[in-house]
């Protein structure tokens, strides 16, 4: 019998390349740790559309549900064929279906030249509402035309969503045991009601964690600047969906780009590893995508599974095996061991083969 079942969904653009890499790395590391892991493929995105005429078939959702967790590649947003009944926002629908309310995005630098500039922060982004409420107006988003010259955009902020995402951030700050600081990022001087509610709930949760964990409140514009000027001052950044989307790409730019930053979509009972980057149509199919973001997202998934499995230590061991191999490869001085986006020469396949060698050498 298998100890764990993981659904694997390749997605669009560079998805098949980076997810395949994450899959073989996970398989190799779990075998070397003696864990029986079943990795089951399900179609999604254009791959599913070609077979089923839709991008998120019910059989795929059922398949994911039958597994302990999923690994998902990037999905196109808003550009599927017009007769696809699942458009737009398959990722959003999946998050809603599994109630994956927390998007956790660690940003770490692997800086060979200047180790003292090490950035190590985590962005905790609310994942189910804000300006992405997925309310079925004209196009499925919370936007609509009142007349031919005016668009209204709907922003949804719920008390219960603020409470649970704030709790996730404080729990994470406790577990990280680093600067013990949660920075709640908002724009309450303009979005007084929505961000006012977000801050109100955050302060309540902060009281429970005080004085071990401190809370600071910061406007999103000044946070964007401080991220560039002094990123080391941050520990856990807690924010709403759209601000988190923007700030996490900005933070990724500080440490080498989207190709190395992982993310986990997590709820109470289910989690999905998904790289922070999109489908990268400019490099899709060229075999040069950096698979690190998807691989480190898988490491995050293993950590999440370790708390929910009797064999948790083994999941942690596999996570360490993969992470150590990735970090040592990223710190290598050899250009041939890094992908193009990091100034190297390695293709996705070269990079993956070298990683597999590192894992088998222990
Ligand atoms: P989408 O519309 O799906 O979000 P996009 O191109 O707008 O796609 P990203 O896919 O996030 O946004 O890509 C932004 C830039 O970063 C692109 O130039 C892309 O090539 C690069 N990039 C993203 N992911 C990777 C990766 N894994 N490896 C190398 N480069 C990447």
Task: Summarize the structure in words.
- This protein has 362 residues and is an alpha/beta fold.
- It folds into two domains: 205 residues, Isopropylmalate Dehydrogenase; 146 residues, 3-Layer(aba) Sandwich (Isopropylmalate Dehydrogenase), CATH 3.40.718.10.
- It is 41% helix and 17% strand.
- It is built from eleven helices and twelve strands.
- It has a ten-stranded mixed beta sheet, sandwiched between helices. A two-stranded antiparallel ribbon has the order 6-7.
- α5 packs across α6 and α10 packs across α11.
- It is globular, with a radius of gyration of 20 Å.
- It starts with a strand and ends with a helix.
- The structure holds adenosine-5'-triphosphate.
- Adenosine-5'-triphosphate binds next to loops.
Number of helices: 11
Q: What is the helical fraction, as a range of percent?
A: 40-55%
What is the strand content?
Answer: 15-25%
Number of domains: 2
The small molecules bound here are: adenosine-5'-triphosphate
Task: Write out the CATH superfamily name of the largest domain.
Answer: Isopropylmalate Dehydrogenase
The overall pLDDT, averaged over residues, is: 92
Q: Report the C-alpha radius of gyration, rounded.
A: 20 Å
With strands numbered from the N-terminus, the spatial order across the biggest sheet is 2-1-3-12-11-4-5-10-8-9
User: How far apart, in Å, are the first and last alpha carbons?
Assistant: 26 Å
**What quaternary form is this?**
single chain
The first-level CATH class name of the largest domain: Alpha Beta
CATH architectural group of the largest domain: 3-Layer(aba) Sandwich
Under CATH, the topology of the largest domain can be stated as Isopropylmalate Dehydrogenase
Q: What's the story with the biggest beta sheet?
A: 10 strands, mixed
List SSEs in N-to-C order: EHEHHEHEEEEHEHEHEHEEHHH
């Amino acid at each position: 019998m298998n100890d764990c079942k993981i659904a694997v969904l390749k997605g669009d653009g560079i998805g098949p390349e980076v997810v395949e890499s994450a899959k073989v790395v996970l398989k190799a590391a779990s075998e070397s740790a003696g864990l029986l892991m079943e990795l089951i493929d399900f179609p999604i995105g254009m791959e599913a559309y070609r077979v089923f005429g839709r991008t998120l078939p019910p059989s795929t959702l059922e398949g994911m549900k039958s597994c302990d967790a999923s690994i998902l590649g990037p999905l196109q947003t808003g550009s599927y064929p017009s007769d696809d009944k699942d458009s737009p926002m398959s990722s959003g629908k999946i998050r809603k279906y599994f109630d994956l309310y927390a998007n956790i995005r660690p940003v770490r630098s692997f800086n060979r030249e200047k180790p003292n500039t090490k950035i190590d922060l985590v962005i905790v982004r609310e994942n189910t509402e804000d300006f992405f409420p997925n309310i079925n107006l004209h196009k499925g988003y919370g936007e609509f035309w009142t007349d031919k010259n005016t668009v209204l955009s709907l922003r949804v902020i719920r008390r219960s969503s603020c409470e649970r995402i704030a709790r996730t951030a404080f729990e994470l700050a406790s577990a990280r045991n680093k600067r013990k600081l949660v920075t709640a990022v908002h724009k309450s001087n303009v979005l007084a009601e929505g961000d006012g509610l977000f801050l109100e709930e955050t302060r309540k949760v902060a009281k429970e964690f005080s004085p071990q964990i401190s809370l600071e409140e910061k406007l999103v514009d000044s946070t964007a600047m401080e991220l560039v000027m002094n990123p080391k001052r941050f520990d856990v950044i807690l924010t709403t969906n759209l601000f988190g989307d923007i700030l996490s790409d900005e933070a990724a730019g500080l440490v080498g780009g989207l190709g190395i930053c992982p993310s986990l979509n997590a709820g109470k009972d289910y989690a999905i590893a998904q790289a922070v980057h999109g489908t990268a149509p400019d490099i899709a199919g060229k075999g040069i995508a950096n698979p690190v973001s998807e691989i480190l997202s898988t490491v995050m998934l293993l950590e999440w599974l370790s708390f929910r499995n009797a064999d948790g230590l083994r999941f942690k061991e596999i996570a360490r095996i993969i992470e150590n191999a990735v970090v040592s490869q990223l710190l290598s001085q050899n250009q041939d061991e890094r992908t193009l986006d990091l100034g190297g020469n390695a293709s996705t396949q070269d990079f993956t083969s070298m990683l597999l060698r590192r894992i088998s050498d222990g």
